[in-house]
Amino acid sequence: MDSAGLKKISDLLVERNAIDAEIGRVIGRPMTSGHLGEWIAREIFDIEPSDLANEAGVDGRFRSGSLQGGTVNVKWYPKRDGLLDLTDTADPRFYLVLAGPAAPAASSRGTVRPWCVEAVYLFDAERLLADLRAAGVKIGTATSVRAHHWAAAEVWPAARCAELAVDEEQIRQLRRFAAPVG
After folding, report:
1. What does the alpha-carbon distance between residue 102 and residue 81 come to, in Å, rounded to a whole number?
2. pTM listed for this prediction
3. CA 140, CA 86: separation in Å to the nearest integer?
4. Residue 176 carries which DSSP code?
5. Element (H or E) spanning 7, and its range?
6. Cα–Cα distance, 27 to 107 (Å, whole number)
7. Which domain of life does this protein belong to (predicted)?
8. Which of 120, 114, 106, 107 is closest to 78 using CA atoms?
9. DSSP per-residue letters across 110-167
10. Which residues, including other chains, have CB under 8 Å from residue 87's CB and lie 6 or more apart?
11. Nearest by Cα to 132 from 151, 153, 149
């Protein structure tokens, strides 16, 4: 038995639980990647949260800009491995994805997944689902989305998706969540 290792991990979990509790107080929900990602997206992209239980797969609606009123499902993936959790329904209208560094879908053994945002993507759900169905891709949890779809949906740092323009203040806020250098 690795008593020293167990002690170290239990001590680290005490620290992590304290940090998660503090984050939970700020966002008003338990700390999970989903809840925190939704909160970050709401704050930066002016999204009104959905309080309706009957809106499965919808985290909220854009309050302003060219997407005003559009329903959105927010995802935060610490690693962008080309997979996206999708629903095969009419809602949401958009998927807004906050993603960490791009990496192949491979074993995570020996790697680190920092909580960071390296890029933001906006997918038009109807278009994406139609393309995936035409290609014979199974829709659901961990749907494989090809690189050209990710490239076309990139909102930040490259502005490839014209549907959502990111202003200087939004860029400043997104940079706060970038991975530390070094």
Report:
1. 6
2. 0.91
3. 5
4. T
5. helix 3-27
6. 31
7. Bacteria
8. 114
9. T----S--SEEEEEEHHHHHHHHHHTTPPPSTTEE--HHHHHHHEEESS---TTS---
10. 56, 57, 73, 139, 140
11. 149
Residue 116 is encoded by which pair of tokens?
């960071």
| Token digits of residue 158 | 């490259």
* Helix, strand or coil, per DSSP, at residue 95: strand
Alpha carbons within 13 angstroms on the beta-carbon side of residue 2 total 5
Q: CB within 8 A of 20, min separation 6: which ones?
A: 30, 31
Distance between start and end Cα atoms, the chain: 34
pLDDT tens digits, one per residue of 54-108: 567 899 999 999 999 999 999 999 888 899 999 988 789 999 999 998 877 666 6
For 21, the 3-state DSSP assignment is: helix
Burial label for 181, CB within 10 Å (0-12, 13-18, 19+), is exposed
Round to whole Å and give the CA distance between 45 and 113: 24
